[in-house]
Fold this protein.
Amino acid sequence: MAVGSLYALIALGYTMVYGILKFINFAHSDIFVLGAWISFSAAACVGFVDVDTSVAGVQLARVAPWVFWLLRAVAAAAVVMALYERVLRPRLVGRFSGWPATDVSRTLALVTVWGAVSLGLVFVARRLVGAVPGAAMETGGPGRMLAGGVILLAAMMTCGLVGFCLERLAYKPLRKAPRLNVLITAIGVSLLLQNLGQANWMFGTRPQGMPKLLPNSEPLFSIGDVKVWPVDVMAAVTAVGLMVGLDIMVYKTKLGRAMRAVSFSERNAALMGIPVDKVISFTFVLGASLAAAAGFLYSQKYAGLNQTGAAGWVLLGLKAFVAAVVGGIGNIRGAMLGGLLIAGLEFFGAQYISTELRDVYVFAALIVVLLFRPSGILGRSVVEKV
Amino acid sequence: MPLLGVVGIALLMQFVLKPMLGEGGSFYAKLLLDIGINAMLAVSLTMVNGFTGQFSIGHAAFMAVGAYTAAVLTYYGSAYLVGGETFADAGVQGGLVSTMLTERVRDDGLATAWITARDLLFAGSLVAGGLVAAVFGWVVGLPSLRLKGDYLAIVTLGFGEVVRVIIQSQTADVLYTVEEIKEAPVLGVAQMFALKTDEWVAPLWLRAGGSLGFSGLPFYTSLFWVFLWCGLTLVVAYRLKNSTYGRAFLSIREDEIASEAMGVNTTRYKVRAFVLAAFFAGVAGGLFAHTSGVQLNAGELGFVKSFDIIIMVVLGGLGSISGAALAAVIVTLLPEALRDPPSLLFPTGPNGGASFFPWSLIVLGLVVAGVCWRAERKVRAVLLLLGTVLAWEALRYGARKAQVDLSDYRNVMYALALILMMILRPRGLLGVGEIWDRKRPHRSVPTATGKTGPGATL
């Protein structure tokens, strides 16, 4: 159930991007991994990890004043850029072909503020740890949970930022290109994220142990032989909460309607006055931050984090993707259902038939579903797609 | 006639080029092997992705099937043929055509004949691997090729993963010993039927290393075999493109509905392309399995490998045979080049002497530049070339100054190059045309989007 809701969270990102842009965002699983690792780094920065000083987060904490200076500098740069945008560019446009015609400065300012806020959140958590008395900071204490919540937020925001940048830099120039190219670009982005994450100044290649931020010392209750751990419950609750929120947003708000409209027909949506670019960016941000939430929850459930390029991560992402397809790709409720189904299949299969073949069940389910019902389980029954 | 040429080139590679590489040439020889195998894979995938426009991303699965089939055949077959105490000393040396250790073998008198029974075994097992992969391709293709577009891609991905997981988890880790093989020649079949659950032994074909990988395979793959098969693949692909079959394939790519209306049985042709591609992928897998320095492991033949092959195909231009081959060369060389970037302005080897590697990079760069050459953009092309070389040198210089080991970042740079390539040159190096079409830029070439006319391929 807990893993199922994690799959569902990741699958949502796949399905939303597919629904709107009709391409498989292979880099999505890497955003998920990034979410897990950023949570770890943030936790390290906050001070929960003090064993290994080479960890990026610990280094970040050491250079905290510098970081803020850097942020100020970037903010100043954004102001300069805005000036350039208003004053200089109108005079340069037309003189050189291929001059960037997008609102670079506004985007840059947005990115800066965004990054500052998400980084600031980590430092808020750091202050929090200093302020709350030690007892509350014990494993399972309320202070730790609060810090965990802030870290979750920070990870979501950072990954959202990464998703935004990726969309703007890598995918947007290819909006009109053949889909195969976009796919290859996605693979390239995926490789890039994996290998950057393994760089020494990022997360390195050593596996790290995520500190336990959520209480998980004893099972909450048990049904028969099955023990239900608090982390599972929290992961499921957080995930379901996020999904319900997403569902409401997509089906009830104006923005959600815009998303559905873009998904239906990009051109017609643009004609109706919907800012297509913004909606697409927003979709990416949403998907990425959901993936980050999944990454945080995953790191709470399974503390050992492998290096970002490890095969296990990719497989996990693929399974989430399978979940999206099984549920009917492009369909939000389908992705949630698919996540639960795939996780159920995997775990019950591993339990009752054979552990070694657990991956086979997932992909066999994929093949069976696609051969007999190519649009997925909920693909037809719900007409509106996002 | 072209087949004779292919054999000639393969022989030249083995007996002229390889000795020319000289001392320490094994690195280059290994690179050449990789290039040949990758080119085979890329060109065979072009038959599916490029010609018929179907999008398969499970190509490495066929490679794995072929590799494991060929590996089981040579590994256990060499014991029958030659005997010997262990597989290691039974298997390694074939005749002169299938050894990468020419000098040593000649000096030690390990191989005297040109072709021995083992080479024939190897050749046979390659073909067998290809055939099994082709059958597999048929089994996979028949149901899944009714799907279109992304769904087909996802299904092939799923099939590829299933193959990988099954090989990894269902074959036994423990390999048979020579004695076991000799005592029970039909071990596999016999034991399949003697199902005593407590002493069930995996049949022959299921003892292939499992998740540990298939170790101890003889290293038969030589430049001769690789370029023989690579040339064969190229010839077949080229002939195919200009045959009736090929036209049917292309028509499916351009417009499936229209070609169906013209009487082309689209599913049948798609399956045929799939089977053919699977055959060559299987052979390439067999070659890959018997390369020295490679330990066959299904884990490496998962979708990451499939993506590598697709990258080559798209980089070269969908539907372009020579493009796929060229891209295979680039994709193989680029990560190696980025490992320790040699100077392009002063191409010297590690010891100050002339080195093949920077020169091969220079030649490659010039070929790429020539391929991208457009008469109306002379200045830009030259500037781009110069800029690339300068940026390359600056990168080297900067890395040395900052004491950064560039090899740590080679995968990052590779990924960046890939993204940039896709953004700046979305149709790949050659579009759908071939290298030799470039001389006639105004010849109208149908493109994937249906546009025709000069410049459409760019």
User: Anything to note?
Assistant: Chain B has a mean pLDDT of 74. Chain B is about 65% helix and 0% strand. The first helix of chain B runs from residue 2 to 21.
